[in-house]
Amino acid sequence: MQTSSDRHEYPAHWEADVVLRDGGTARIRPITVDDAERLVSFYEQVSDESKYYRFFAPYPRLSAKDVHRFTHHDFVDRVGLAATIGGEFIATVRYDRIGADGAPASAPADEAEVAFLVQDAHQGRGVASALLEHIGAVARERGIRRFAAEVLPANTKMIKVFTDAGYTQRRSFEDGVVRLEFGLEPTDRSMAVQYAREQRAEARSVQRLLAPGSVAVVGAGRTPGGVGRSVLDHLRDTGFTGRLYAVNKSLGEGEKELGGVAAFRSVRDIDGSVDLAVVAVPAERVPEIVTECGEHGVQGLVVVSAGYAESGPDGRERQRALVRQARSYGMRIIGPNAFGVINTSPDVRLNASLAPEMPRPGRIGLFAQSGAIGIALLSRLHRRGGGVTGVTGVSTFVSSGNRADVSGNDVLQYWYEDPDTDVALMYLESIGNPRKFTRLARRTAAAKPLVVVQGARHGAGPRGHAVRATRLPHATVSALLRQAGVIRVDTITELVDAGLLLARQPLPAGPRVAILGNSESLGLLTYDACLAEGLRPHRPLDLTTAASAADFHAALSHALADDTSDAVVVTAIPAVGEGSVGDAALAQALRSAAAATPSKPVLVVHVELGGLAEALSAATSTAPPSAAGAAPQTVTGTASRPSGVAPPPAAAGVLPSAGSGAPARADASDRARAAVDGGPPAPVAPPEGAHLIPAYPAAERAVRALAQAVAYGQWRRDAADPGKVPEYDDIDERGAAALIGGLLSRGQGLTLGTAETCDLLGTYGIHVHRALPAPDPGTAAEAARTLGYPVALKATAPHLRHRADLGGVRLDLADEEQLRRAYGELTELFGAPEELRPVVQRMAPRGVDTVVRAVIDPAAGAVLSFGLAGAPSQLLGDMAHRLIPVTDRDATSLVRSIRTAPLLFGWRGSAPVDTPALEELMLRVSRLVHDHPEVVAITLEPVVVAPRGVSVLGASVRLAPPPARDDLGPRTLPAY
Fold this sequence. Notes:
By secondary structure, the chain is an alpha/beta fold. It is built from 28 helices and 39 strands. The model is unreliable at 1-6, 385-391 and 619-689 (pLDDT under 50).
């Protein structure tokens, strides 16, 4: 690397891995003097046409002078970056700082010329776009604000790279050359372009793993059993549509097959291409396999091998080396220590996992970081486990293991545009990039439901997961996820319950719930559960135990037609006696009534009605209506299992057969086997055209799922109009910046004093009531005369601050006599003034004491919090949170989100307070933190909200250099 004294130190932080447009990866790094041979080799592989476009003349080879120029950089005024795969260059970009006359210059000149060269074999992969993002970030870091580029008019590809980037541009044409000039500060359009490219690239990278044309299982045993052989057998038995290979280095000379699959001693020996390799060898052999795969052109890896970060420090370093090695070849990894991946599409039929059976095709995407939880969720969805007896299908399943590379964020990018996935269910034990996850979740939730359960909520995540630290409590993170539209649940049972409803039924238009059924008691339980979940139930309609199928049909039809209800919960108990309604008849009655009004959700609460639940919701698909307002899609259940694959038994703990989508039919032996094994009965094929209705074994589970759907539906409606961040004429952004710059010049981080806090907040129209120190009674009296009576006397010692309940505050002191008497009482009770730190403050109008806080978390970003001061927030944790910047709609909902919000709106006859003024205060705090990320923490407490206006009686501000924001920089994969 470069070590000359006239050059800056090698900037290792510019190195990054990126995902390209086609889903492959490349490494971007600075070019150094050690790259001369690589540069020459790279240039030899570039076509004459591309060379002509770069140099505006025939330029068959680089001279020694060229090589020296293009490899010697000072990393300030002259910078070169290369995109590499397998250690070799595939593209380069460089900038040279220039002055106003176009000649080479140094700072303070802030313009540079930029030029690219991309190998023809890699053009069209988005390499130049990624390099432009990174060279732009480098230039900004070095004080360059504008790029200029000269391009031949015929070089339309490079012109498009510049014009599509989203920067503010100026174009001119002179002497047969197009000159483009553009600023490098990110704009809304440039960020939108960057996010769109990120989404397409990351989605494509996951698609390559989930829809490969060929798969090699490396480590497949010669005899049945073992991890590798099991994965191979699962791929074969479920009818994978692509080419399948087995790899075992111990194969004998004459062995050409394993289990009927073409077998080879090495990946290198395979004649055709391999898109995906499943690696199931001991960890110490994995590097050798990765090298074989990389040299053979394998696109991605699923590493089920264990012995990595979950095993300790040595394993963590082994995991880092694995990721670096795979990325050097342009491959992405699921794992290590992964359970595997599944894609039920009939065009793919991929079961590259340890799950012995393929789940039924459906519309639910499933992601689990834990293999054990993943198989539990697959089993519940497939066999209607956990009491939820509807058969629900899966589109794709990913179990990421240690998620060293591919994470939940990547899978979200894929599901967002996947036409086969309508509902996303995720089990997460850690969130590696909460800021990005929140952004992606908000976008995904606007298109399709996203349900998340988070494990390890009260302690460290799994040892195999490398995650950045967050100072936010779990409750705050959950609130921020809900703000992003995520349906947060606490258990995998609730995850499945919500998934069943969201996959099968429309979103409710509101919280009004009709309840009907043949059990008054079950109806009342459902009514109580609705009230507990914040829904608005009508009184239950009791049809009595004598109700027939026709009675249920009529009652449900009437409830669905009623404009005063948004959803219907049907309760049913077994009927006993001659002539009682049968399961099949009741299910048909409910389905037909629901199908006639498909715009409202219907749920069934049943008690030990296995037959009814099967008849209601057995299906091989969870496809939604084909168009808004249309009746649900007919489910015929006519898909067939691949030929030659026999249905496996429905034993307990083993997913029952549905193969590639064949309707599972339960005969007497199947049901007997299920009864003996303690599992639920096998599914029953639905009647043609069946309307799927989710069934639940308990009222509270059905109602909780419905409440989550109601909240999500409201979020979808609100998200259509997110509000705006208001402008205020009295905000002095430049004045605040000058104050912050001067204060930070004293040190890296500091808590401001009272005067400095008031001055900074004042630049944003936030005015704090003055509090004058009162070290003795005479000074207190002088302060009161300055402020004007009536006044308050407060002890500000840490153990008494904001603790009026301890008696450290005296209010409404009308004159000096009362003030001196109060001063004496405080010192008598709590000690000398030096310990109390008393202050005098003018009385504010009476109202409700609240607290407003803002903090910049290194992982989640800037967060605004609100609650009532004192016990509600400190003891009960009744705080609400929103991500900054906060819109006017966010501020309105923030005030109303806390449980104690009624105290602000005239609870029990009290006067309502000025919540619009409170919302404006929070919007100003949000603007201050958003505009100046050096403001890393603000606390306003108490903020007294009176019937007219607000009074900020206490404030603290902390400044520090802001945490790095990777969401504003160029696209990169997490560093390893």
